[in-house]
Design goal:
By secondary structure, the protein is an alpha+beta fold. It has three domains: about 45 residues, no CATH class; about 140 residues, 3-Layer(aba) Sandwich (Thermophilic metalloprotease-like), CATH 3.40.1830; about 220 residues, no CATH class. About 20% of the residues lie in helices and about 25% in strands. It has nine helices and 23 strands. The radius of gyration is 22 Å and the shape is globular. The chain starts with 11 loop residues before the first strand and ends in an 8-residue tail after the last strand.
């Protein structure tokens, strides 16, 4: 028996809809629009049992129960089989809700886009964010998205919704929110490789709680000459373990990392990036790059004040100066990875999550949520830096001291900070 059993005529079909694949001769034309019947839809291929089981495992891990409202938000172009499998899985779990595909206003994907002003093509309004805020579980995903189409979410500091909060992210992550928000990406193969586990969740929370309870000096050193200090006084520990299992929590599926937003005016010393470390080019002429030569970043008062090295350092300096804003060089967030299965061949995931690695952001750090125990350790607290960029770099093989306690030694993460063992 088919999982789907539609008993009524089910609605008008527009461009980008999965129902648009139904031949016109098999449907009814009414008022100039294509209307699909229940028989038409039930003749479409079913998502495979294995894919539905995979999606159901994701939803169960994110605590979907009968009667909950589930909202799946995608671009107008999406992977039909995967999205249908998610909806079928939600139905089998007894959830109610809908799939929201964002109407597209195409734009040039290579055009400059600001982190603080809504770039052209987002096509999101207060209607979207009010809908998202009514969900018990919100999944936003761009799986299958075509280039040049808007995604289902704004970036960190953009406000498209009609609400009093500093950004749309903060609106969903606000105190009292009921919405558990999961950002879902990657191929099914990658999702299975990075699938969240109870052990990784516990270890990552352990690291976030360590940061949350410390609230003081943090020091990073390395054999390459790094010696850098900052402070997280007043800032909570943040955990990403790939599951949205707490009201108001946002997470990236398959992640494993601990972070905080250091005090914006405290970041002193030197960081020496070595071959094998990673920098991001964002907006990206070439995305994430594993570097092949050293780059030295000198810090004062929470800012990168000079970038030294060879040709790569010159190029990186020019790239960062191109943002035209001194805040682009300021510390945004800092932390370490807890993911034991991250693969260096998938640089985006590896640089963010590899166990014992360090991830830095320079640039914007606002609107990640309140954080702390009362928010399930999701959020960076009262972070204040706004900038046109959110630029990452990752370092491997460093030593990290939280106060007088060493938690990472040459890239080896101690269990007290979320390491294995």
């Amino acid at each position: 028996m088919k999982r789907r059993n539609f008993v009524k005529t089910i609605g008008a079909v527009g461009a980008g809809s999965t129902l648009a694949a139904i031949p016109a001769c098999d449907a009814v034309r009414t008022n100039g629009g294509l209307v699909a019947t229940s028989d038409d839809v039930n003749q479409l291929p079913e998502p495979g049992d294995a894919l539905v089981a995979h999606c159901k495992a994701i939803l169960e891990q994110n605590l979907v129960v009968p009667g909950e409202t589930f909202v799946l938000a995608t671009p107008m172009v999406f992977d039909r089989d995967y999205m249908l499998a998610l909806l079928v899985a939600a139905g089998e779990l007894g959830a109610t809700g809908l799939h929201a595909a964002v109407i597209s206003h195409p734009f040039d994907p290579n055009a400059p886009q600001s982190r603080t002003d809504g770039p052209p093509g987002y096509a999101l309004t207060g209607v979207h964010w009010d809908l998202y805020a009514e969900a018990n579980l919100l999944i936003t995903t761009s799986i299958g998205k075509a280039p040049g189409l808007p995604g289902p979410s704004t970036s960190y500091a953009v406000t498209a919704g009609d609400h009093p909060y500093a950004s749309d992210h903060e609106y969903i992550n606000r105190p009292g929110s009921k919405t558990r928000w999961l950002s879902l990406g990657g191929s099914v193969e990658n999702q299975k490789q990075f699938f969240p586990t109870a052990d990784r969740r516990e270890r990552t929370l352990r690291g976030a709680i360590l940061l949350d309870e410390h609230r003081g000096e943090i020091r990073v050193t390395s054999d390459a000459g790094s010696d850098w200090t900052t402070s997280n006084i007043g800032r909570p520990g943040h955990a990403q373990y790939g599951i949205a299992d707490f009201p108001g929590r946002w997470d990236n599926f398959g992640y494993g990392c601990v972070a905080c937003a250091p005090e914006e005016t405290i970041g002193e010393g030197v960081l020496v990036l070595q071959p094998g470390d990673v920098i991001s080019w964002n907006p990206k002429p070439r995305g994430y790059e594993v570097i092949s030569e050293s780059v030295t970043l000198n810090w004062e008062g929470g800012y990168v004040v000079s970038i030294e090295g060879g040709a790569l350092a010159d190029e990186y300096r020019a790239h960062m100066e191109g943002f035209g804003d001194p805040e682009s060089f300021g510390i945004g967030h800092w932390g370490w990875g807890t993911h034991e299965a991250s693969d260096p061949s998938y640089t985006n995931h590896y640089h963010h999550n590899h166990i014992g690695s360090l991830l830095y952001n320079i640039g914007i750090n606002v609107a990640h949520g309140i954080g702390g125990a009362e928010a399930g350790y999701s959020g960076l607290g009262d972070s204040r830096r706004t900038a046109p960029n959110h630029s990452h770099f990752a370092m491997f093989g460093c030593d990290v001291f939280i106060g007088d306690q060493q938690i990472i030694s040459a890239g080896d993460l101690d269990p007290i900070g979320g390491g294995l063992g």
